[in-house]
Design a protein that fits this description.
Elements lengths: L1 H18 L3 H5 L7 H15 L8 H18 L1 H12 L4
Helix pairs in contact: 3-4, 4-5
């Protein structure tokens, strides 16, 4: 039964990782998006969810933070490469 338990734990971990949205999903772009596409998407979403425009909406502020984090990772070539490798190898 030990082998089956290990198998189910692995499946559960893979399922959990898949539930998390990626930085690409957060910005609404493809993983093949150019640096310019990353910047355009960030600017568009940042205008929508900026805290100054949504002072009474904590969800918008949370979304703005997620968008900014995604942009910081994907706009830097080295950070983006490391992030893409972590996605490829299952770490998130």
């Amino acid at each position: 039964w030990m082998n089956y338990s290990f198998f189910y734990v692995i499946l559960l971990l893979q399922w959990t990782i898949q539930l998390k949205s990626s930085h690409f999903d957060t910005l609404g772009i493809s993983s093949k998006a150019s640096e310019d596409d990353v910047k355009k998407s960030y600017r568009k979403l940042a205008k929508i969810y900026h805290p100054d425009k949504n002072k009474n909406d904590p969800d918008a502020q949370t979304k703005f933070i997620e968008i900014t984090k995604a942009y910081e990772v994907l706009s830097d070539p080295q950070s983006r490469l490391e992030y893409e490798e972590s996605l490829r190898f299952g770490a998130n």
